[in-house]
Amino acid sequence: MDNYKIKDKKLIISIDYLVDLGCNRRTMENSISKFNKGNSIFFHAHKDPITNKKWIYYESIPKRLLKKFNISTDRDIALKTLREIEKNDIFKIRSEINLLLKIQWDNPIYWKQYIPNYVLYFLDAEKRNLFAKTHSIISCVIELKKSRNYKLCDIHTVYLKFENAVFWNESYNYFSKKILEAERMGIPDALVHGFKRFGRNNYRLNNFAKKRIIHYYCNPKAYSRKQIRDKVNLELTERGLNTISYNSVTLFMRNNEFRNKYDILRKGIEFGYNDLFPYLTRKEPQFIGELFQIDSTRLNIKYLSEDKKIQSLYLCVVMDVFTRKIIGYSFSDSENQVLIMESIRMAFKEFSIIPKQIVVDSHSSYSSEEFKKFINVMDEYGVDVRKSRPYNPRDKGHVERWFRTFSSSYLNQLMGNLGYGIKSKIADGRAAQSLERFYNKPSNLRTKKQLINAVSRLINTCNNDKKVVKNSKDASWLAPKRNFLKRDIAKIFFSQKRIKVRNSMVRMSVKGLVVTYTIQNIKKANQLNNEYVYVRYDEGNLNSIYLFDMKNGEYIWKLEIDERIAIVPNPEELVKIKKFSEKQNQRMQDQFDMVQRDLDEAKEELNSIPILQDFNSKKTKEEIYRQAEDDYLISEIINLNYPKDKGKQFMKRKKEKYKSNNTYNKVRNEMRKKDSIRIIED
């Protein structure tokens, strides 16, 4: 290899040779450009037009650089030295070192074996490969050093050619020190924790600066790193101490030990509970309905709305953890409390088992007033509603795992599925942009109803998949005896109105539709007439309603909707009218019979109790007469029956009789005409 030659009686040296000696190529190239412009007297260059190789005139090389590389400043002695170096074949040695290091760097056979050492530290594959390559050449450097056939200074000179290495530094002293550290503590630890790209920072934080950083970091004002640096530097300057850099503050505050220790003061107690302190692990449920888990997510499948807009659909599910079955689900355009309550309502209605605990998400919808009322109602049934720990998906990991399985194994069957979403860290988790554009064409989109039906079918299919569902065979005997009744579902989920009962009927208006319900039970009618009650009803199905007491909220009765009769009734409706009239007459008679029984029971009880002799003598005849008249009056009123032959005339006469204010006097006069008082006297 030609490293020097004589041109026009002047000594010129190869620029590659100078680089091999340790001279910086960029320094020489910059000086060459300055030389051409007349701004520098150093590094006068000559370029061979055939080989395009650059040469530097010996006279233009700085003397301090020549001394650094042990080259004489005298031209003749330098020429003699170069001949001796060539004679000693130093460049042949360096060429061998370069060949060995280049093989370690370029050939994956050598460096791929070191990749597992850096998997835990770096997620980026390119960064792991770069560390593995650097590991390979450093291990080769250590082997060459141990062989004693090569000097470490020569190895360092060749090593500087690998500028992309993780560890690279021009200082030979720093290089030798770090190679010793790699031998002592191992190459992976030295690369990850010990090596710096261009060496360590010149300044290290002293204890005073560290304590002042901690002081401002824990301040409730939450100073930024720049503000902390400025405040600490001000205090250091006042005391005549060295200031600190922004990078020093950043590196000190990035330490995990620092953050774990002081973030609880900066971020609050919730950070400690959610991110720092341990939590209790819970046992798996032992029977059906012991534990429900609720979660919701946005389906990454678009649909075309009625106003021709592309929208997304949210799915909320309720899972019975013991069987891993989805027992309730609902769909909506947004994640809100209506979506959540609909899924819970379906679970309670279809499954009808009262759970011991319900685990919900920490979403804002679970903090709404409606959901707080639901929690209070569940507390009455002995159900514990618990929010999962924030940033801890394992707290409701079963339903989270179900969503992952459902997305990867079932939703991908639907055309239009865009994968896991933009923020997914799963490899190939998102559809290609070209496929996404194709799916989002209006002609390829489903309607909202079609998408709901398709996803519902997939949920039912998943519930029947033995790979997903567990403990479903012969597990019904494990179900608890506490079940939700229909009235419980009404109390928890149905809408409520405050209605006054009139004429044994409940009449109310729902969305402009007036509906009526009749209380057929006589006892309940007597109890509720002219009283206010809470009416629970389902807006989607008004066929039946449930009455609840306003004072204690207890269930009273269930009513069925009344059938309406046309203005001009047809023959079938005339039959219904006749039956209704007969039913009303019978109801009136039953009412009288009930009263008569109560009076007879009261009289029997009264007669069963003897009257004291002293009080019997004091009782006057007028009081006896008045009591007899009252008994007779009541019996006359109760014994008024409805003759079948008189019909409307009798009803008219009866109504007039009851409307009269002096009914009592008429009956009394009739009694006197019949000499009933005389009978009593006798």
UniProtKB/TrEMBL annotation:
Coiled coil segments of this chain: none
Pfam families for this protein: rve (PF00665)
Recorded superkingdom: Bacteria
InterPro entries assigned to the protein according to its UniProt record, in alphabetical order: Integrase_cat-core (IPR001584), RNaseH-like_sf (IPR012337), RNaseH_sf (IPR036397)
Domain Integrase catalytic: start-end pairs: 281-488
Listed Gene3D superfamilies: Ribonuclease H-like superfamily/Ribonuclease H
Protein name per the record: Integrase catalytic region
